[in-house]
Specification:
The chain is of the alpha/beta class and 134 residues long. It has a single domain, classed as Phosphotransferase system, mannose-type IIA component (Rossmann fold), CATH 3.40.50.510. It contains six helices and four strands, in the order βαβαβαβααα. The protein has a four-stranded parallel beta sheet, with helices on both faces. Strand 1, helix 1 and strand 2 form a beta-alpha-beta unit. Helix 1 crosses helix 4, helix 2 packs across helix 3 and helix 4 packs antiparallel against helix 5.
Length: 134
């Protein structure tokens, strides 16, 4: 059974959870680090322990950020998948997965999302130029 966890600074994870709920009707676990938070690392440990019997996929917001660093350290103690650079298409793909998510699944989802990431002005310009040539 897959368990999705979103972890971020401030309210990004909660907002992403609301968007996921809009598309899927389901919610995921959310952890948010705030300026007043002194025990975020303990919360991370508790969350991972709570779901240790599940196939956890954790999404963090920022590569190299404190949230990602804490989860990275926890990889030594817990077995879970860690993806940074929280991305809606990748999370949705994981939410709709019918099988246990593994490394191959995550790599394919990340690569697919990379292809969707683009500067639309260039895309539209290229389409306009193609139309003019026809």
């Amino acid at each position: 059974m897959n368990q999705i966890i979103l972890a971020s600074h401030s309210k990004l994870a909660a907002g992403m959870n609301e968007t996921i709920k809009f598309f899927t009707g389901n919610q995921v676990e959310v952890l948010e680090q705030t300026m007043q938070d002194n025990n975020f690392e303990n919360q991370v440990s508790e969350m991972l322990k709570k779901h240790e019997d599940k196939n956890c996929v954790v999404f963090t917001d920022l590569y190299g950020g404190s949230v990602n660093q804490i989860f990275s350290r926890k990889l030594k103690e817990h077995s879970f998948h860690l993806v940074t650079g929280m991305n809606l298409p990748v999370i949705l793909e994981c939410m709709f997965a019918q099988e246990d998510i593994d490394e191959t699944f995550i790599r394919q989802a990340v690569n697919s999302a990379k292809e969707q990431f683009c500067y639309m002005n260039d895309v539209l310009q290229a389409l306009t130029e193609d139309d003019e040539e026809d």
